[in-house]
Design goal:
By secondary structure, the chain is an alpha/beta fold. It is built from 14 helices and 32 strands. It has an eight-stranded parallel barrel with strand order 11-14-17-20-21-22-23-24. Strands 25-26-27-32-29-30 form a six-stranded antiparallel sheet. Strand 25 (about 570-580) and strand 26 form a beta hairpin. The radius of gyration is 27 Å and the shape is elongated. It starts with 9 loop residues before the first helix and ends with a strand.
């Protein structure tokens, strides 16, 4: 679970189509020179209709950002801002800001006639950049000042007001969006670079401040492309008051973090990634929210967004509030947030944080601290229904996107479609593989033979889900140390182990993700308040590790056998998984074309193994694609002169075999020459 610190069926699809049609209306215009009508689209007003209210009450309004919040409009020839906010238990609601001296009694909103709990109104003469909050008088007589839950922009913390903002942007990624379904498919390469925007790189000339979105559009995009990654995953860029939460304590579900710039600045960053054919995944947190006074907590003096009962509405680990997933308005709010980042920011996918905490009523709770469901069990049916509805909604309205679950338990069918009884995600982080693998690699090689099963066990369940293999930020914080610090031995062995870890990871079935800094052997544990240690790249071991990752990415992208059939047993085949004494694993990766077969050989000991015989499926010459011990990666140079000839001598139940020289703590990739 990523942690922040402190502080049915066709009927559903039909409803989704109705919701999507709200965003635009079409009129048929017949041209005199054409027989067929031409569809002319016009933007719909942000005014709330009775149909909007109907959809909200069903929990099926998935573009609330077009209706609630602050919108620049012209009414009766007068320019201004139309405000709308959901606060059903308020006595009064007004808009306050610099424009009225923050006076509560000046610009009141009106409660709608339909008992929806929505307050709305038009204030003339206001424009882009207006700073505002909602002043709410509760039924208890409390006076609250709240940021806009559907605001598009916000002040830089510790200031906490919302800002009226026109989020129009002239995109230049039409080619990417048109062909995204080809680049971002499950049978395509997916090597994800996970980035914390505030600490990837800092500006030393400005006191070590974080880079802006625009600066990242130059430096980060260039680096990701140079390194050969196919995707970047940004840790939460949604507005959050405390940077120490790494973004996981979200306040603004429709506003980007203003630490790094404006909404358009973030759009330009994503746009730049797309122009360089790099997909962007955004980390999104529907599992909990912080209890900051200006946020969603007790929004109108009652538990509006959160569950009222603390046993369901308060998260003991993160000291934060849990959404009331059974409330239709909350469901519409959250799904609208997901839609917003996909629609308005062109995100190519969402990594959904904390799914396990949503699924179980007793998550991180002792006996007596939770309420069983209606059958006496621990499953949270309301959250399960929300998750399924979320995935149905986004997939029915967006082509080529991915929804990825951070789910750490044995819950079944997380990445299977809802019509098959699944939760509807496209992928799930493989936390089991991560834990087993890092435990194994932390062992001194002399003891690894007693833990051999930790390398092989994951293949018993590897195809039960669509797995993404993750070495994320969670593995390099809170005293866990950096990846290279986890490795045993002297410095040379640590780097060899790190390269072996990454090579083994790229050889395994499943998509790939790892956290920034690991690619060049960052020694220090990740610190959100400082830059990665880029100065380390002046030394050869770090240069070698970085180049290894770069070449791994390039090989991975160019070899379909390593990504085409990740989620089916037909894409993987053991040659020998039983050499625990020698600490060697050999296996094949296979694509749709049998000639694309890749041989992967891993030696998890520091011993050079001469004349190591490996059975292969075909004769002829096998070319060495990569060797982690090569000199260019600061290795010792042990290898096979670039290729080996398979002989007719059978081994491992195969008619041919190759005799290899295995480098110490090394991984080899071979492909048969045609």
């Amino acid at each position: 679970m990523s942690s922040g610190i402190i502080s049915s069926g066709s009927r559903r699809k039909a409803k989704t189509s109705q919701v999507l049609s709200q965003q635009k209306v079409s009129t048929d215009v017949v041209r005199v020179d054409e027989k067929k009508p031409v569809r002319e689209e016009k933007d719909v007003s942000c005014k709330i209709s009775d149909f909007d209210i109907h959809l909200v009450r069903e929990g099926n309004h998935f573009n609330l950002y077009n209706k609630l919040g602050a919108h620049l409009v012209t009414e009766n020839g007068v320019k201004g801002v139309r405000f709308a906010v959901w606060a059903p238990n308020a006595n009064k609601v007004s808009v306050i800001g610099d424009f009225n001296g923050w006076q509560r009694e000046v610009n009141f909103l009106s409660s709608r006639y339909d008992s929806s709990g929505i307050w709305e109104g038009f204030i003339p003469q206001l424009g882009h950049g207006t700073v505002y909050k909602y002043a709410i008088e509760t039924r208890q007589g409390w006076q609250l000042e709240k940021a806009d839950p559907v605001g598009f922009h916000s002040e830089i913390p510790p200031k906490s007001a919302s800002i009226v903002w026109d989020i129009k942007h002239e995109w230049h990624d039409s080619a990417w969006m048109k062909n995204r379904h080809e680049h971002n498919a499950l049978n395509k390469p997916m090597s994800v670079y996970e980035v914390h925007p505030g600490s990837w790189m800092r500006s030393p000339e400005d006191g070590g401040r974080a880079l802006t979105y625009l600066e990242m559009a130059d430096k980060l995009v260039e680096y990701v492309k140079k390194m050969g990654y196919t995707h970047v995953e940004l840790m939460p860029v949604m507005a959050h008051p405390f940077q120490g939460s790494w973004g996981y304590q979200t306040v603004g579900y429709f506003a980007p973090a203003s630490f790094f710039g404006s909404p358009q600045d973030l759009m330009r960053l994503i746009d730049k990634f797309h122009q360089n054919e790099i997909a962007v995944i955004l980390d999104w947190v529907p599992s909990h929210f912080p209890n900051d006074g200006h946020g969603l907590w007790q929004f109108d003096g009652t538990a509006l967004y959160e569950h009222e009962d603390m046993r369901k509405g308060f998260h003991p680990d993160w000291k934060s509030s849990i959404f009331n997933y059974g409330r239709v308005e909350v469901r519409s709010f959250l799904i609208s947030s997901a839609m917003f980042w996909l629609d308005m920011y062109h995100a190519d996918g969402l990594r959904v944080d904390g799914v396990a905490s949503m699924l179980y009523l007793d998550y991180s709770r002792a006996e007596g601290e939770w309420i069983p469901n209606c059958f006496g069990g621990r499953e949270n049916f309301e959250a399960i229904d929300f998750i399924k509805r979320l995935n149905e909604a986004v997939y029915s309205s967006h082509t080529g996107i991915q929804m990825i679950a951070e789910e750490s338990t044995a819950w079944t069918k997380v990445s299977k479609p809802t019509w098959d009884g699944g939760l509807g995600f496209s992928m799930k982080w493989n936390m089991g593989w991560m834990n087993d693998t890092l435990v194994y690699f932390s062992k001194d090689p002399i003891y690894r033979k007693y833990h051999h099963n930790q390398l092989t066990f994951g293949l018993l369940y590897a195809f039960t889900e669509n797995f993404m293999m993750s070495l994320s930020h969670d593995e390099v914080v809170h005293g866990k140390g950096s990846l290279i610090r986890k490795m045993p031995g002297d410095d040379w062995q640590k780097f060899a182990n790190l390269k072996l870890l990454f090579g083994y990871m790229f050889g395994q079935p499943g998509k790939k993700l790892h956290f920034m800094g690991g690619e060049f052997g960052q020694w220090d544990e990740w610190n959100y308040q400082s830059s990665l240690d880029w100065h380390l790249l002046q030394w050869a071991p770090h240069q070698g590790a970085q180049r290894w990752m770069q070449d791994l990415n390039n090989m991975y992208r160019n070899q379909p056998a390593l990504y085409q059939d990740d989620f089916n047993y037909t894409g993987f085949e053991w040659i020998d998984c039983g050499d625990w004494e020698g600490g060697v694993l050999t296996f094949l990766r296979k694509g749709y074309d049998p000639d694309d077969t890749i041989l992967v050989v891993c030696n998890f000991t520091p011993t050079v193994r001469e004349w190591y015989n490996v059975g292969v499926p075909a004769g002829g010459m096998w070319k060495e694609l990569l060797n982690s011990d090569a000199k260019e990666y600061n290795g010792s140079g042990v290898g096979n002169a670039g290729r080996v000839m398979a002989t007719n001598s059978s081994a491992h139940g195969r008619p041919f075999s190759v005799s290899l020289k295995l480098p110490p703590l090394g991984v080899l990739f071979f492909k048969r020459e045609k």
